[in-house]
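Moderator note: this is an archived Q&A kept for reference. The question asked for a predicted structure of one protein chain; the sequence and the answer are reproduced below.
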Amino acid sequence: MPAHLTADDVRGRIRTQLFRADHANRFADATFRYARPFSDGIVVGLCLDFPDDVVTVTDDSLDGLPLTVDELYAYGQLNTDKEPVDERREVMPGMHLVAGESFFTAAKAANLPGVLGAAPFGTLFTVPQRHLLLALPIADERTLPMVEHLLGATIQVITGSPAPGGVLSADVHFSRGGEVTKMTSVGDDGRVVFAADARLGQAFEDALSSR
């Protein structure tokens, strides 16, 4: 990492990025205790984006940056929200694909309204790899059957060509009101199982009662 970064340098270069929770295991001499929980198995970390390199912020390098951790995350998410998107389309009714060459595309999931607009009843989404976000905002009773297609598209991405940076998550997550939870698990037969919890059930009730 370049020495003597000014506060303005850091404000412009800091980005949020999603990592697997076991990300730290990939580095023998670095720790990431500062990383913030995002959903089960995923944390939000920080990177510095330089013209020819992306540097992951570690606990050691964090101490040398001229901003507080809260400031780093605030500016980081603002910058990630502004990262260019190369493809944005509705792949099926209600299901949106957001893809880009940016390393930080998946981290747009940390501020879904910033990329998809308001979704008062929440959004089901997957982040199979760092360059891709698949999202299914909850609208009405037609949303729930679409979860199978969301899962299928995610598995297709993961089992296709090798994902840049590796697989991030095969799970479906639910975001509402700033809280993110995992909605899937692996069954005894090895298949991914979707199970709605009380919070998701309430979201569907709210969506239906608003009509």
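Archived answer notes: The chain has a mean pLDDT of 92.
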